[in-house]
């Protein structure tokens, strides 16, 4: 029997990227760019970047359960803000439901990205610290992507 529980957690991550807000925003909006920094080569990634649009990232690990991360875009203000809700499924089980806000703020020498996520972590299937760490990793990979150029 599963021990039912809900852990609520909020975290904020910040990154400074030495490029314009338009360039950072474009790396979120372009399906090919987003797949490079957000997904993995062995996953299926779909992105319909518009209010009401959906993003799905399905992993297919060699061992263990598949993971499906699905988001619905609720608010998009170009070069300023993205708000989306998400669900993470591990196999067939719902692990997390969250609300994420990403703000793009002008800063000396570039753009300050501020990501705030509020989550309900269900039945011990995901820990808030795991999500925070993983989100930080892909924001770091976004920085690598932005350094590669191509989003002027």
From TrEMBL:
Database matches in Pfam families: AHSA1
Domain Activator of Hsp90 ATPase homologue 1/2-like C-terminal per the UniProt entry, residue ranges: 19-144
InterPro entries associated with the record:
ASHA1/2-like_C, START-like_dom_sf
Family, as annotated = Belongs to the AHA1 family.
Q: What is the protein name for this chain?
A: Activator of Hsp90 ATPase homologue 1/2-like C-terminal domain-containing protein
């Amino acid at each position: 029997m599963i021990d039912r529980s809900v852990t609520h957690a909020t975290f904020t991550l910040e990154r400074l990227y030495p490029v314009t807000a338009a360039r950072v925003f474009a790396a979120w909006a372009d399906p090919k760019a987003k797949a490079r920094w957000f997904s993995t080569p062995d996953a299926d990634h779909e992105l319909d970047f518009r209010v009401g649009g959906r993003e799905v990232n399905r992993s297919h690990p060699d061992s263990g359960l598949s993971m499906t991360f699905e988001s619905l875009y609720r608010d998009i203000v170009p070069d300023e803000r993205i708000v989306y809700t998400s669900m993470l499924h591990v196999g067939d089980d719902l692990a997390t439901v969250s609300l994420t806000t990403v703000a793009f703020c002008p800063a000396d020498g570039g753009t300050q990205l501020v990501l705030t996520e509020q989550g309900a972590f269900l039945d011990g299937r995901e820990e808030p610290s795991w999500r925070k760490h993983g989100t930080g990793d892909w924001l770091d990979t976004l920085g690598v992507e932005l350094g590669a150029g191509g989003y002027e």
